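Sample pair:
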Amino acid sequence: MARHILPQPGLGTYRLKEQVVIDSVTSALELGYRHLDSAQMYGNEAAVGKAVRQSGIDRRELFITTKVWWDSLKPKQLTASLEQSLENFGIDQLDLALIHWPSPNGEVPMADYIGALDAARERGLTKHIGVSNFTIAQIDEALTLPGGENIITNQIEVHPFLANRKLVTHCQAKGLEVTAYMPLAVGKVMDDPVLKRIAEAHAATPAQIALAWIAARDIIVIPSSTKREHQQSNLEALEIRLREEEIAQIDRLDRGDRVANPDFAPKWDE
């Protein structure tokens, strides 16, 4: 497997606010997580930053990601968004800045916001840049644009019910890391009989099997969890080695069941 720039696993913080996210990040860092995934739209950057400072962990040991929302993709707004994120976190530099969603209907030309994102990297606002929720065609366009050669990841929805195989394969073939959000399909994996059966064979949980399956595809996972025992369980999931026939059984669960599909989403790859 390729050596990753993004640490495996990360901690997702979507929908977590205030003390809840502080507690979640605190326990994750204590357990050994070093990759934290946030976004301007989550409204929790300041709380994540507070938890990081309270942890006493050297900033250089951490990998902090945030994302620019689609209403801030014009170059000046994009730069202001990243500067605001740095202020919110209380840090001097991000490890990764992502375009959260491509501009709806191409309203802002991709060249404008990819160029602005890379300019922010050159200024030192972020070490790395990437995208999220980009389709195959959008990835291909982004990579040909000035600054696009510095994109390192596409963060997309991946779980056993949405394998997203064409897009994952395409990104990896282009040398991009794939980061999987909602890897547990907002808890749906817990009720699946196939995942339950495989979990029993490994003395594991269905959630652990789902994460192990994604990691076996050389994908970074960023499950969100507020409970310390679940965070520990997620770390342990990465030690599980699934047999080929088990992977094939999980592969067959793919039914294109997409959780994140807002009205401004791009036209997804089939």
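The first strand starts at residue 11 and ends at 12.
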